[in-house]
Design goal:
Arc Repressor Mutant, subunit A; about 350 residues; alpha/beta; three-stranded parallel β-sheet; about 45% helix; Rossmann fold; seven-stranded mixed β-sheet; globular; 2 domains
């Protein structure tokens, strides 16, 4: 908006008078309200009933007008915007800060000192760089006003207690395989309800699901999945544990969550969308993370302890000769999380 100066206008669509003015397909009324601006930002555009039709009219009649429509979940935007604008819109996901963004403003010498804080409090813009006390307060507000308030507004979400218990269960299982049946039994709910809640949490950018990779071996696990939280701070808020890594027994899970989500943020921010998986067999051979890209499989293991011994997954590498294997630790993680074309070499 700074680039466009006076030719740009920001509109908060949660304000009733703006929402009413935009709830029309009358071209004259829309032009009268919007004026001659060249760039319009519609924040929380999904608040406008049938906003997709409004946007379609504007794109049809105002080819000179650039419109940025934002929404707090892909579910909302997909339901209200995408279909009427098929072929005429492009979707971008705005994640919390990424390590790649922060690295542009921070000297590499500072990364080590900041890493512990990121693992504890995450990288929401309102949180990053704040004192421990302020970060804690901001995360509590985000969890209360976003995780519960916004997600609970969907018709599919009927019970706040189930949502909270599910989020806590997922937070405690970060880095572990889970299944809908297992979670349903734990929560005393049916399989389909748990699945629908998890689906909405992913579409609301709270979690990411990784499916299991299974192609050639009969003993490969194929039905379970892993869940990661898009922000470490939100995950820690759910279990009420902000202790530093040196004082916790789940640092391996924290590290894995950080590495997986930062890698996915890096790729998506660069408009790269490889398939991502984990791999495990019934005899407990496993790989934390796999990217499938260009006909190759790039397998990665995450280790917080830099001296930990890691066995190469011989069976995987033999079964899939188009694959390579790497280990990401505190010493080499910048290469993995700052370079979307990270050279996967043996």
């Amino acid at each position: 908006m700074e680039k466009h100066g006076d030719a740009a206008r920001y509109i908060n669509c949660e304000i009733q008078q703006y929402r009413t003015a935009l709830q029309t397909t009358n071209t004259a009324m829309l032009n009268d309200f919007l004026g001659n601006y060249k760039l319009i930002v519609l924040d929380e555009a999904q608040s406008i009933p049938d906003v997709g039709l409004t946007l379609k009219v504007l794109t049809d009649t105002r080819p000179d007008l650039q419109i940025i429509a934002t929404g707090s979940s892909s579910f909302d935007m997909a339901q209200t915007v995408s279909e009427p604008l098929t072929g005429r819109s492009r979707t971008f996901t705005l994640y919390p800060f990424s390590l790649a963004e922060i690295s542009q403003q921070t000297h590499p010498v500072e990364w080590g000192a900041r890493l512990d804080n990121i693992l504890r409090f995450g990288m929401y813009p309102e949180v990053y760089g704040r004192s421990d006390e302020m970060a804690y307060e901001e995360l509590r507000d985000i969890a209360t006003n976003y995780l519960y308030k916004d997600v609970l507004q969907y018709n599919q979400i009927k019970r706040s207690d189930l949502l909270f218990n599910l989020l806590q269960a997922l937070a405690l299982q970060v880095g572990n395989e889970v299944s809908y049946g297992e979670l349903a039994r734990l929560l005393g709910e049916n399989h389909h309800t748990v699945r629908s809640y998890i689906d909405l949490l992913e579409k609301s950018f709270v979690i990411i699901r990784l499916g299991s990779f299974s192609r050639n071996l009969r003993k490969e696990i194929s039905k379970s999945f892993k869940v990661y939280f898009l922000d470490n701070g939100i995950r820690n808020s759910l279990i009420n544990n902000f202790n530093p890594p040196s004082q916790r027994d789940d640092v391996g899970a924290l590290w894995e969550n950080f590495c997986v989500t930062e890698r996915i943020k890096l790729l998506h921010n660069n408009r790269l969308f490889p398939n991502s998986y984990f791999w495990r067999t019934y005899d407990r051979k496993e790989i934390d993370y796999i990217e499938e890209e260009g006909g190759r499989l790039h397998a990665t293991e995450f280790k917080w302890n830099v001296t930990a011994k890691v066995k190469r997954p011989k069976e995987f590498l033999q079964t899939y000769p188009n694959s390579d294997f790497n280990v990401v630790t505190r010493e080499n993680y910048p290469a993995f999380l700052l370079n979307p074309k990270w050279p996967h070499t043996d």
